């Protein structure tokens, strides 16, 4: 089956071996991220996703904040492996921080009380779709990335460092950069285990 969307979707893979050389300009990357997030779906068209894009030294600073927080809780004899992992993320050209604006969610809960319990769940789904849209868009221009979840450890430090609104809740981090190694194959479970088709 040939389909442009599916072809793009299949190129999106986890890349841990990142480098600082980008195949396109920072301006193009920024525009790509903005467009991908802007057109990602959200419940009630709430557009609750917020994004911080960090390049170069700013990205390095974020991973140093994560390192400082992890040093407080990771046993000393295990910290070397943790530090190496964080260094692989900092080796990239940048990092995207995905947030969800809690004020938007609270506003929807007040406006549509019948669905109040669902809005936090729908917000998480919106964030996931924005993350996938960005990841796939980056893959189409030859940029490698991975998705990380160190939140809530660096949340307060990142909010202070970049003067972010208190209502922004960090949901994921995406280090990105050049592909510095081949991406291995991916195994799939049998379709019969995942899909049921009727009619």
UniProtKB/TrEMBL annotation:
Keyword field: Cytoplasm, Oxidoreductase
Compartments, as annotated in UniProt: Cytoplasm
Gene Ontology CC: one annotated term: cytoplasm
SUPFAM superfamilies, per the entry: FMN-dependent nitroreductase-like
Nitroreductase domain residues: 10-177
GO biological process: cellular response to oxidative stress
GO molecular function list: oxidoreductase activity
Pfam families the UniProt entry points to: Nitroreductase
InterPro entries: Frm2/Hbn1, Nitroreductase, Nitroreductase-like
UniProt xrefs under PANTHER family: FATTY ACID REPRESSION MUTANT PROTEIN 2-RELATED
Name of the featured protein: Nitroreductase family protein
